[in-house]
Amino acid sequence: MTTTENAVAQRPATKTAGPVAWMRANLFNSPVSTILTFLSVWLLLMAIPALFEWGFIQAKFAAANGQECRQVQGACWAFIAEKHRLILFGTYPFEEQWRPMLAVIILIALLILSTWRKLWNLWLIPIWVLGMASVGVLMWGGVFGLTYVENTRWGGLPVTLILATFGIALAFPLGVLLALGRRSEMPAIKVICVTYIELIRGVPLISLLFMASVMLPLFLPEGMTIDKLLRALIAIVMFAAAYVAEVVRGGLQAIPKGQYEGADSLGLTYWQKMRLIVLPQALRIVIPPLVGIFISMFKDTSLVVIIGIFDLTLAAKAALSDPAWQGFGVEVYVFISAIYFVFCYSMSKYSQALEKRLAKGHER
Amino acid sequence: MADALIQMRNVNKWYGKFHVLKNIYLDVAQGERIVICGPSGSGKSTLIRCLNRLEEHQEGQIIIDGTELTSDIKDVEAIRRNVGMVFQHFNLFPHLTVLENLTLGPIWVLKIPKAQAEETAMKYLERVRIPDQAHKYPGQLSGGQQQRVAIARSLCMNPKIMLFDEPTSALDPEMVKEVLDVMVELAEQSGMTMLCVTHEMGFARKVANRVIFMDRGEIIEQNEPEQFFGNPQNERTRLFLSQILH
Lengths: 364, 246
Known about the structure:
Strand content of chain B: 15-25%
Structural class of chain B: alpha/beta
Mean pLDDT of chain B: 91
Largest sheet of chain A: none
Distance between the termini of chain A: 46 Å
Order of helices and strands of chain B: EEEHEEHEHHHEHEHEEHH
Helix content of chain B: 25-40%
Number of strands of chain B: 10
Radius of gyration of chain A: 27 Å
Structural class of chain A: mainly alpha
Oligomer: heterodimer
Radius of gyration of chain B: 18 Å
Number of strands of chain A: 0
Shape of chain B: globular
Shape of chain A: globular
């Protein structure tokens, strides 16, 4: 009796194991799914070999000039090899390009350090200030025997990274303050914050960038100028802060009233209550959407090309304008897309890992 | 009674049009232990929540230890330092360990050095009989243990007054006793001034100096427990007691 019961119980288990059973269960479990499976396989068969052919087999990895490259069918990676310094660092003085390189490494290190949970406290502030200051010194120079390089000559990856990292570092605290302001009991502060958030969220980033670059100088007193890169950064920070504020507000609303009352009953002041009790819990909840904002912010920095800032995208365009190497737009855009992808994908992966770790944690 | 620790004078409060507290006069002397009971919606929780201004009263005066509760946030914070509160749903901070929950107030509000705050915290954890849970997070504890941590958290602030807002109503029945035992011990050993909203009449008989019955925002009757339970004067009190004492 018991043996037959066991055999019955085991049969389905053996059926679901193995690749054939898996395929039957997942790829061919219905007519629609079978058709979709074949369609996907056909698409992959069409696309992958062709891409592989173009990107590797027929591609030219070394060439003296564009003429040589045009004789082959595939990609001209030689163009990237030739122009990578221009794409990555723009028109920064050639012999000094170790400086933007080092700045890029520092910025990436800052981002990686910030993912380390042990550092999620006030230590992050001096680390970021120090990191940002050293990036400034490296890029501008003029001290410690470094020659001065004005920022109209900066370009490429460091500009993109500076806009993105400085943007994130400034938009985040500003956004948190706006979110707190929006929930403030003081009507004046609340009205200001709500108006700001709704106004900014109602306009596209491009219009803010235009305003920062074209209109802002008109309002400044004569003789006073704000650097173009700084103006773009301000526009990006103002824009992202409004979105950060809305996400953080969601987190604040998810904190039960009892937490506020518990903090109040101990006699904590408003700022102590927010810093020690409410924000640590609220920010944990909103990490995934916050990272989402940072990812789109990273990509949105490419919009600064329209006000003529020499970021990665514009550097790619500049590389294309060399008459000796014309017509390799696909290669160069694949190259910079890959750079954007590496950054955005790492952020996305990190956010997923973090979400999992926090879900497993001790918090209810 | 001019030097009563808590003085409520003609206190009125409305939620919109709903008159939740009506002309409350209440004096509580140092060391007095008061149990407040009444049907749900009678305003008993609101009354004690007014004492540390988690709720604002709209009329009348509340004076705690010589300081009047007004909208002046400095006064409110000063009073909250001296008034501990234990909530129905514990309101522990889930992102901090038990020990961090206990030392947060002393370190940030009373500015006590961390080592000293931890020492005091361990002393109170021993008093509520869970010193071995100090490094766990609240979510890892049972309801009864969490409520005992919450009591210890309030005691760590060395308050003059302890408020209990239905401390056992959210607990599973088998955990009610462990919390009540701690509260009885606190009442008998420390001489703490306590105001407790509860339906635990056994607790009221055992520790209260005075039992207050509230209904529809008014204090209907107050007396020492012997008289209150043995010989209730008001019809509504008698009805309420007959409903909860089977």
